[in-house]
Amino acid sequence: MGNSCVTSKPPALPGKTHDPAFEWKVYGFSSLIERGAISATSATFHCGGYKWFLQVTPMHKRSGDKVPYVALDLALNRIGFKSGYIMNAVFELSMYNHSNGTHCGHRASYSFSVKNTHSEKIRLIALDELLKSSDFLVDDSCVFAVRILKADVSSPKKNPVGISKKPTTVQNLFLQKKEFIKGTYIWNCDFNSRDLKLPVLSPAFEVGGHKWIINMHPLGDQYSTNSLSLFLHLNDLNELPDPESGMMIELTLSILNQKHEQHYALAGRFVFSNATTSQKVGWGWSNFIPLATLNDLSRGYLVGSTCVLKAEITMIGSSNNG
Questions:
Q1: How far is CA 199 from the centre of its chain?
Q2: What does the pLDDT read at residue 9?
Q3: pLDDT class for 267, splitting at 50, 70, 90?
Q4: Does pLDDT of 10 surpass 50?
Q5: How far is CA 32 from the centre of its chain?
Q6: How many CB atoms neighbour CB 41 within 10 A?
Q7: Can you tell me the distance from the alpha carbon of 278 to that of 234, in angstroms, rounded to the nearest whole number?
Q8: pLDDT tens digits, residue range 159-215?
Q9: Percent of the chain topping pLDDT 70
């Protein structure tokens, strides 16, 4: 197979793709693999008047795959995008070939909305091929990129979004190999006498010299579908020393099972920074757990009016704009 990028079907763009709008340089890529098959999310970038971010899955397998692939998807930051609108986008997802100075990737299209913010995952290269490659992986670093070619918004006014040619935005992610700062916080939340239509905030807790808050929407936020929503955010973004830099954390949020040992948990890797994280939203999941599952008393996630939540935070790297 050599060092070419592959998917299950021939690439739509053989050879060089367009110069990207956004490059995400990941230093210490093997750390993502060593810590498990959890997706990592970039900080946001601006294009066409909206905010976007990339998500890389280092060990992606779908039905029929014999080996894991490195996969990439594009996501629309729903903040600032109105409910009921549809963003029909055409874009290229790629990796940088250090040997010939080009980007190798594939064209894709997706219809984004506030409830469908992530495109399908595009498999770029088999993981074992990447690890042996001297083209796409150099000194344990690789570069992921995206160029948005077209973005039309279906709205009452039907205003198209112009994608003008601008200099490439570069973001660097530096992943640690050891000496991780970790912390765990457990929150006993009693729903009794609460207005469940309003968000519920945990007490602030400290990990790594920063104070954090769990933000829960018991009946779901405006983007959820019959699910509880759960997020983590910094208590005070002003604690971050540089608005252009940030920290990547590995986050696991759980609702503990109070009757059995099987807890309900989701995990991800996210960049927290002044420029990309809002105190109102943070990072997490609008559809964390279906309300039907939570409210089924036989499951053990809700006992009486109390549920127990756990946040596990590991600081795994730092991020800055190149």
A1: 22
A2: 41
A3: very high
A4: no
A5: 14
A6: 20
A7: 9
A8: 555 555 667 788 888 998 888 999 999 999 998 878 888 999 999 999 998 999 999
A9: 86
The two tokens of residue 61 are 């397998």
Distances (CA, A) of 69 to 56, 62, 130: 10, 9, 9
Closest-CA residue to 251 (of 223, 216, 212) = 212
Mean pLDDT computed over every residue of the chain = 86
E strands of 77-209, at which residues?
A: 86-97, 102-112, 122-126, 141-154, 160-161, 169-175, 181-190, 200-201, 205-207
Please report, as a single letter, which amino acid is at residue 277: T
> In the structure encoding, which two tokens stand for residue 92, read together?
């290229």
**pTM (2 d.p.):** 0.84
Cβ 29 vs Cβ 174: under 8 Å: no
Backbone torsions φ then ψ of 66, nearest 5 degrees? -90, -25
Q: Token pair 């998500």 is at which residue?
A: 55
In 3-state terms, the chain is what percent helix, strand and coil (to 5)?
5, 50, 40
Dihedral-angle region of residue 193 (phi above 0 means left; psi in -120 to 50 means alpha; beta otherwise): left
Total count of residues recorded for the chain? 322
**Of the candidates 149, 152, 147, 150, the residue with the CA atom closest to the CA atom of residue 85:** 152
Residue 30, SS3 per DSSP: helix
Q: Which of 282, 285, 27, 255 is nearest to 143 (CA)?
A: 27
DSSP character string of 234-286: ES-GGGSS-TTEEEEEEEEEEEE-SSSS--EEEEEEEEEETTT--TTT-EEEE
The encoded tokens of residue 289 equal: 């757990």
DSSP assigned state of 4: -
Q: 10 Å Cβ neighbour count for 243?
A: 13
